[in-house]
């Protein structure tokens, strides 16, 4: 693989790293044209498992990425951005190869990678498409507001099921008659992607 990429004009690097199953390798191939400050990257893992067909997982992904790299080189086009291809070892042991690559890449070099596309089992007849979100905040639970009445959780609000209008919550407080109680609102927020909570009114109705 490295020899084919070398012959096609790629600048290749063979990275070795140790795993519990012995030495494993990454092959990195960079097309030495285009803006080196903006890297577009595609990759796939080279290893397989004995429990499944390696021809698909991940012979298919690695063959597809390799063929794409060779076809691009043969096309004699000049890319605007820098193209880089990664072939990872020991993915099945816990993404060891790609983690090794990222962990040994200086922060300034990591920042230059604008896009990474991963190809795994692309010969599957029943494919799934997944997006790995590099936003650490993600689209999951991020901001929340919990209201408490003494030790009772009255309501929990989150960015996940946010509402743009007011929501009224009512609690029967008869059990607290004659007692001193504390009403408390506790908010947690990720400031990079904020959700606004408005507490408009807290009222006690007597009857
Ligand atoms: Zn795989």
Structural summary, described in words:
The protein has 207 residues and is an alpha/beta fold. It has two domains: 2-118, Zn peptidases (Aminopeptidase), CATH 3.40.630.10; 136-207, no CATH class. It has four helices and eight strands. A five-stranded mixed beta sheet has the order 1-2-4-3-5. The termini are far apart. The mean pLDDT is 88. Bound molecules: zinc ion. Zinc ion is lined by residues 45, 57-58, 120-121.
Notable traits:
alpha/beta, Aminopeptidase, 2 domains, 4 helices, 8 strands, elongated
Category from helices, strands and their pairing = alpha/beta
Percent strand: 25-35%
The number of distinct helices, counting runs of at least 4 residues, comes to 4
Euclidean distance between termini CA atoms: 81 Å
The CATH homologous superfamily of the largest domain is termed: Zn peptidases
Main β-sheet, spatial strand arrangement = 1-2-4-3-5
Largest sheet data: 5 strands, mixed
What is the C-level CATH assignment of the largest domain? Alpha Beta
Instruction: Estimate the global geometry from the Cα principal axes.
Output: elongated
Do you know the CATH topology of the largest domain? Aminopeptidase
What is the string of SSEs from the N terminus onward? HEEEHEHHEEEE
Helix content: 10-25%
For the record, the count of structural domains works out to: 2
Instruction: Please identify, by name, the CATH architecture of the largest domain.
Output: 3-Layer(aba) Sandwich
Heterogens: zinc ion
Mean pLDDT: 88
Low-confidence stretches: none
The value of Rg in angstroms is 27 Å
The number of distinct β-strands equals: 8
């Amino acid at each position: 693989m490295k020899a084919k990429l070398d012959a096609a004009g790629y600048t290749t690097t063979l990275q070795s790293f140790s795993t519990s199953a012995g030495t494993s390798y990454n092959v990195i191939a960079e097309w030495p044209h285009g803006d080196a400050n903006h890297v577009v990257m595609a990759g796939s893992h080279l290893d397989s498992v004995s429990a499944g067909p390696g021809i698909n997982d991940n012979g298919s992904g690695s063959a597809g990425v390799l063929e794409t790299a060779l076809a691009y080189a043969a096309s004699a086009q000049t890319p605007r951005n820098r193209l880089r291809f990664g072939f990872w070892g020991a993915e099945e042991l816990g993404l060891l190869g790609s983690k090794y690559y990222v962990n040994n890449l200086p922060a300034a070099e990591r920042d230059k990678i604008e896009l990474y596309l991963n190809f795994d089992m692309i010969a599957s007849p029943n494919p799934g498409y997944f997006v790995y979100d590099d936003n650490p905040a993600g689209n999951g639970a991020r901001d929340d507001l919990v209201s408490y009445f003494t030790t009772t959780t009255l309501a929990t609000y989150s960015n996940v099921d946010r509402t743009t209008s007011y929501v009224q919550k009512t609690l029967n407080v008869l059990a607290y008659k004659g007692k001193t109680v504390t009403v408390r609102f506790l908010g947690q927020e990720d400031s990079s992607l904020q959700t606004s909570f408005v507490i408009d009114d807290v009222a006690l109705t007597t009857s």
